[in-house]
Amino acid sequence: MPVTETGRATIYFDPELHRPLRRKTVETSRFVPGRVNKDAGEALAGDAENIAAFGKRRAESLIRYNEMVKRLKDDLTRVYEKNDSNVTTPSLQYDEMIHIGKDFSSREVVEAYDARHRRFRDIEGENEAIIAGVGLQKNHIIADFGSGTGTFVIQAAQKCEKVYAVDISPAMLEYTEWKARNLGLANIVCCHGGFLTYVHSDRPLDAVSTSMALHHLPDFWKQKALTRLQEMLKPNGKFFLADVVFTEENYESSIQAWINKLASEMGKEMAEDISRHIRCEHSTFSWIMEGLLQRAGFRIDLAEYTDGVLARYFCTKAA
């Protein structure tokens, strides 16, 4: 902003502001008045641009609030479609891109989650059981939905041709890519999307897996999600699902016993995460989950329930 004439003013700075300002003037060889003129000029230049923009749009007609919201939604949909061909959001579709429960949008939270679970679980052993259960082979392609920190994806990639890691959290996907690079794995494809939005364009999948993710969807949308997964599979393709699922017998006492157990074994933070899960997320009953799987076109080969709160299902795409 050019200065045409100089005016004088006395400004009293707060001591906490004055000290760093003086240091800054020394570093930049600019006196305090010059520094203030520069910073104030840049700030006011932005205001001037905004005022000019308001003036140009003064003649535009007013719109109602509902119309403004509709336009914003339309713009958002176009951005999704432009920036990521795997992510579209039809107007009536559940928005699975909104985090419920714990927010995994930062690298620090992702790393802490990964480290905490490694301390208290035999994750590698659990993953090997899944890999064996779906019969993963060298020429197979598998997709893991809600791939999280990529622990399963990394192990599966060492056993098969290609793995699709699908997650709504960019931070989770970046962490998975970082792990894959460090291990020299080039057969992992990270996809920003979810059960309802991922679009599979490769050949039909040999297997699909998902652990502790389907509960992010209400039951109506679980059915839609499972049907979509079934359609991605080749005939007789394998499906593995692990999640929080409640059996009918004494489910309230089972939930409380589970929270108490986690508090004792894994600490208060983990117990609080599960309490939040119960309050805010969409875990369902075993009889509902089995019905959803069967109606989506799966044959349940094995159903295992633990402590009345956890379930694992090994399934086959029905002929």
List keywords for this structure.
alpha/beta; Rossmann fold; 3 domains; elongated; 11 helices; 319 residues; eight-stranded mixed β-sheet
Oligomerization: single chain
Task: Supply the CATH architecture of the largest domain.
Answer: 3-Layer(aba) Sandwich
> How far apart are the first and last residues' alpha carbons, in Å?
73 Å
Supply the CATH class of the largest domain. Alpha Beta
The major beta sheet can be summarized as:
8 strands, mixed
**Helix-strand sequence:** HHHHHEHEHEEHEHHEHEE
Globally, the shape reads elongated
Rg over CA atoms, rounded to whole Å, is 27 Å
**What are the segments in which pLDDT stays under 50 over at least 5 consecutive residues?**
79-86
- Structural category is alpha/beta
User: How many distinct domains?
Assistant: 3
Strand percentage, roughly?
15-25%
The CATH homologous superfamily of the largest domain corresponds to Vaccinia Virus protein VP39
